[in-house]
Design a protein that fits this description.
Nucleotidyltransferase, domain 5; 2 domains; eight-stranded mixed β-sheet; 15 helices; 13 strands; disordered N terminus
Length: 407
C-alpha cells in the first residue's frame, strides 16, 4: 500500500515505534509503543485543557525519570501539537518513529476499514466535517501537522465508526424522510475501537464460543454507549448519527424529544448552534446535577445532594433500559461487559444498573463486584457479567502494525 502523502517503504528503523494520537475537543492523548515480537507500551501522555489558560502537558513513562507534568501555553490544537512534536524530536527523533496511528471519530459512509492517510482521504474528511464538527476539524489538523514536520512518516486513520459499519439495515435506518439516507444520514455508532478491543479480549479470556454468543458491551465513561453483538457481529448500538445520542453522559444529553429544539426556539429564541452546545456540553450528569460531570464526584455527594443522586439514578436507569432493549434485539443474553472509566471503576453504578435484571439471568456477586474482579456475576448464573479494561491506544497500535505489516 502506498500513499501520495507519506512514503514508508524506504524508512529503515531497527526497532519500530508506533505513536498513537487520540485527539479530542480540548485534549490530545498519545501513547508510544515498541514493536517486535509483540507490542508493548513505553510511554503515554496527554496535552489537556487546550484553549484554557492552564493547559498541561503530562507524560508517564516506564521509569519515574521519564514522567513529568508541566504547565504550557496552548491556545489551540495547532500550538498543542507543535509542543508535542517538539518533545518527540528532542526525545525520540523523527527516525525513531515507524508510523503514527490516529483515532478518527467519524468515517462517514465510505470508511469501514483503517487506511493509510493520503491527500484523497484528507479531502474526503473535509467533506465530512458537517457530520462531526466537534472532532473532525481537529483530527484533520493533527494529521496535517505531523505531515509538515515528519514528511515521510506514514499515518494511519483508525475510524471509530468502522466497527458498526455493517449494522443491519433495520438498525442503521433513521425514521426520517428517506432522501436523507442518500446523503449518508444513518446510525453510525461510535466507540468502535473500544468495542473491537473488548471483543478480542472476550475471545482471549472466555474463548471463541463466548465471543460468538449474545453479547452486550457497555462502554461507560465521559462518553457512554452500548453495543449489541451476536455471532461476533454488531447488531445495534446506542449512539446514532452523532455521539450525542443514546444514554446520558457526562455532559451529553443522550436521547431526547427532538421537539425540544422547536420549543426552546420559540420560548427562548434558542439557535440551533446554542441547542447543539447545550446537549453536548451542558447536559447529562452535569446538567441534571448542576455541580459536576464526574461520576466519582457525584457518588461522593449523593447522600447530601438530591441533584447528584438524581443524576446518578437517571444514568443507571437509562443504561438499564438499553440493556433490556438490546437483550430483546439479541433474543437473550449470554455475556454483559462493563468497560470505560465508570464501567471499570464505579462498582456502585454497576450494582444499580444490574439491579432488577434477574429476569434476564443477570445476578451480581457483590463481593466480586466491590473488588472490581474480572467476573462479577454469581457462579452458575445464566449471564456472565465481566469487567474488562478497554485500551483504545493499544487497538490503534495493533491496527497500524497490521496495515503497515510492522509486526
Amino acid at each position: 500500500m502506498k500513499s501520495n502523502i507519506v512514503g514508508y517503504e524506504n524508512r529503515k528503523i531497527t526497532t519500530p515505534r508506533v505513536l498513537t494520537i487520540n485527539g479530542g475537543s480540548s485534549s490530545i492523548k498519545f501513547s508510544l509503543f515498541e514493536t517486535g515480537n509483540s507490542l508493548h507500551g513505553i510511554m503515554e501522555g496527554v496535552v489537556e485543557r487546550i484553549g484554557l489558560p492552564d493547559a498541561i502537558f503530562r507524560m508517564k513513562g516506564l521509569n519515574r525519570t521519564d514522567s513529568f507534568s508541566r504547565k504550557i501555553t496552548a491556545p489551540n490544537h495547532t500550538v498543542a501539537v507543535e509542543i508535542l512534536m517538539d518533545w518527540i524530536e528532542e526525545n525520540i527523533g523523527g527516525e525513531g518513529l515507524a508510523a503514527v496511528g490516529h483515532r478518527v471519530v467519524h468515517g462517514g459512509p465510505k470508511y469501514s476499514e483503517p487506511k493509510l492517510i493520503d491527500r484523497e482521504m484528507i479531502e474526503e474528511l473535509r467533506q465530512l466535517k458537517p457530520f462531526d464538527p466537534e472532532h473532525l476539524p481537529e483530527e484533520i489538523q493533527l494529521t496535517e501537522a505531523f505531515h509538515r514536520r515528519f514528511h515521510d512518516l506514514p499515518q494511519v486513520a483508525c475510524f471509530d465508526t468502522a466497527f458498526h459499519h455493517d449494522l443491519p439495515q433495520v438498525a442503521r435506518l433513521l425514521p426520517i424522510p428517506r432522501r436523507y439516507e442518500a446523503q449518508g444520514v444513518r446510525r453510525y455508532g461510535f466507540h468502535g475501537l473500544s468495542y473491537a478491543f473488548l471483543m478480542g479480549e472476550l475471545a482471549r479470556l472466555a474463548g471463541a464460543e463466548a465471543a460468538q454468543g449474545r453479547v452486550i458491551l457497555a462502554h461507560l465513561g465521559n462518553g457512554a454507549s452500548l453495543a449489541a453483538v451476536r455471532d461476533g457481529k454488531p447488531v445495534d448500538t446506542s449512539m446514532s448519527f452523532t455521539p450525542t445520542a443514546g444514554v446520558p453522559m457526562s455532559t451529553r444529553s443522550g436521547d431526547m424529544d427532538p421537539g425540544l429544539l422547536w420549543y426552546l426556539a420559540r420560548t427562548e429564541n434558542m439557535s440551533a448552534k446554542k441547542f447543539n452546545e447545550m446537549v453536548n456540553f451542558e447536559s447529562g450528569l452535569l446538567g441534571v446535577s448542576e455541580t459536576s460531570s464526574d461520576m466519582q464526584d457525584l457518588l461522593a455527594k449523593e447522600a447530601d445532594d438530591i441533584r447528584a443522586a438524581e443524576a446518578i439514578a437517571m444514568f443507571c436507569y437509562q443504561t438499564k433500559k438499553w440493556i433490556g432493549a438490546f437483550s430483546a434485539a439479541l433474543g437473550g443474553l449470554d455475556t454483559l461487559v462493563f468497560s470505560g472509566g465508570i464501567g471499570e471503576n464505579a462498582y456502585p453504578v454497576r450494582t444499580r444498573i444490574c439491579d432488577g435484571l434477574g429476569f434476564l439471568g443477570i445476578e451480581i456477586d457483590e463481593k466480586r463486584n466491590a473488588g472490581n474482579e474480572n467476573i462479577i456475576s454469581k457462579a452458575g448464573g445464566r449471564v456472565t457479567v465481566r469487567v474488562i479494561r478497554t485500551d483504545e491506544e493499544l487497538m490503534i497500535a495493533r491496527t497500524v502494525c497490521k496495515v503497515l505489516s510492522l509486526c
